[in-house]
Predict the 3D structure of the following.
Amino acid sequence: MIMRVSGVGLLLVLSCVTPREPEEVASASTRIDGFAVSLEPSAARRFGFAFPPDFHAVRDTGARYASLPVPIVQRDRHSDSLHLGEIDHALLGNVIRRARRARLSVIVAPFVTLTEGARGDWRGTLAPNDEARWWRRYREVLRELARVANEAGASHFVIGSELTSLSTHAAPWRETARSVREEFTGPLIFVANHDALDLRAPFSAADMIGVSAYRDLEVGDLRDALGPTEAGLRVAFRAFVDELRVTQDEIAKPMMIFELGFRSVAGATRAPWDYTRGGPTDMVEQARAYAATLGVLKEEGDFLSGVLLYNWLGAGGLHDRHYTPRGKPAEAYARDFFGSAQILQP
């Protein structure tokens, strides 16, 4: 059960948590457990928090990995022209090195983002006017990012993230992986959306399959006065984990949850992917979601190679409505999952 926690109560809970002593940067055989750490200098300026991120605070949660999402920008879903967004090569290299100095292993995770489009348009619906030109440019951008990632000491590299509409043919993905491997010596990951696990053409090109796990978790009438119950959320997420187990058996490749997260707003478990959702700030629903999903993964997620929580961005705290659990009741559940703390029961 999740109790309501006051600001003072939360500080007491977190102050009683003793972080595990940091170890060396994780090896390739270590479970890939950690946080996505968004790189958004403009958000830092807008909301008044520090950039680059404080990777020591991430490591103190017990996390061993940091995934760094790197935006690749195109105008709309039909565009065949791509370019880097806020994060250039020099800044990416510097941020990777900062994370490694905090004894975190680093995954570089490029993703395509659109600047224009109708509602419902996103990287999962791309339909470039000139698909061959799009692939050529995509590979060029990835090769340069892979070179920077390799030189700075990243451990893994993502060759595609949630590109559902471009996941019907294997040949472009094999060529993409071949091109990236000329620059990057570590394992390559393809990240599939939670509703596209049957589109497996890119899987043959990657060493590991990640899953973007923003599944709707509300089940029937399993609610109380504070929203969906932890028990109800467990039921829904356990069914999803069962699907992942079947998929992993079928593809016979390492699989991990590449993104799992919930905003601090009422209704966040109904559409976890929707970062535009309105509604009142709600720390209870986020904490219940963390307790339920991470509880199921502790009990039944041994077949997975790791879990990355989305995300660690900004100062956090009890007035923050974004995905970060930092300074919120949900943080204690992340710490417990990573092994750096025990949950204090009321």
Remarks:
- The chain has one domain: 30-338.
- The first strand starts at residue 32 and ends at 36.
- The two ends are 10 Å apart (CA to CA).
- The mean pLDDT is 89.
